Amino acid sequence: MGPRYAVLRLDEVETSQDFAGLRFRPLRPLLGIEAFGVAGWVADAGEEVIVDHTEPQDGQEELYVVLAGKARFVIGADEVLSAAPGTCVAVRPGVRRRATAEADGTSVLAVGAPRGAAYTAPGWEHSAVAAAEYRRGDFAAAVTLLRQAESEHPDVVGVVYNLACCEALSGQRDDALEHLRRAVELEPRMAAHARSDTDLDSIRDDPRFAAAVG
């Protein structure tokens, strides 16, 4: 890497796993990019390669480029696209999207930034770093990393929800319940997920849990 440019090969970048178990290559921080988000996502047949999500109306425009394998995109409620290598799928803010790999070794490059606004690095990257501690069972360490991410990105639902889970797993009951309430406030669909998430079992008997998830 030089001061004016950076170069890497995708197949030489080790994949990490986020909290949902999706495998990704953290290209933006490795390349030192600050103007837009970029990451590589990898999955085998039947696995999710792009997580089911909706960018807020003032959020990122996102471009997905299938590099290898084959991906089945679902845009909105029911528009289905079968995407072979070389296919570019651009999705506007406010539109739900998800993709599943239809072949082993499917690789999708995702690029995004908000239209007409300065880009700031998303909190999910910090959350994904904490996922490694979560998978090792060091929930206190994961909480430390997620709280740092929350201080920088207080409105990123993935950070707030995962913080609630790790706090619940490390016995920080009150903090977990407050962050769960905040996560559902940011994204009401998280309530349904929380009802069956075993990471939250330690706080499920608290009346504040029922109040948060409805």
State the total count of DSSP E strands. 10
The radius of gyration over CA amounts to 18 Å
- Give me the number of helical elements: 7
Mean pLDDT: 93
Do you know the CATH architecture of the largest domain? Sandwich
Spatially, the strands of the biggest sheet line up as 1-2-3-10-5-8
Q: Quick one: overall form?
A: globular
CATH topology of the largest domain, by name, is: Jelly Rolls
Helix proportion range: 25-40%
User: What fraction of the residues are assigned to beta strands by DSSP?
Assistant: 25-35%
Q: Which homologous superfamily in CATH is the superfamily of the largest domain?
A: Jelly Rolls
Q: Termini distance?
A: 50 Å
Task: Specify the structural class.
Answer: alpha+beta
Largest sheet: 6 strands, antiparallel
Describe the 3D structure.
This protein is of the alpha+beta class and 214 residues long. The protein has two domains: 10-114, Jelly Rolls, CATH 2.60.120.10; 123-213, Tetratricopeptide repeat domain (Serine Threonine Protein Phosphatase 5, Tetratricopeptide repeat). Helix content is 34%, strand content 27%. A six-stranded antiparallel beta sheet has the order 1-2-3-10-5-8, with helices on one face. Strands 4-9-6-7 form a four-stranded antiparallel beta sheet, with no helix packed on it. The termini are far apart. The relative contact order is 0.12.
Kindly summarize this structure in a few lines.
This protein has 7 helices and 10 strands.
Structural features:
six-stranded antiparallel beta sheet, 34% helix, Jelly Rolls, alpha+beta, four-stranded antiparallel beta sheet, 2 domains, Serine Threonine Protein Phosphatase 5, Tetratricopeptide repeat, globular, 214 residues, 7 helices
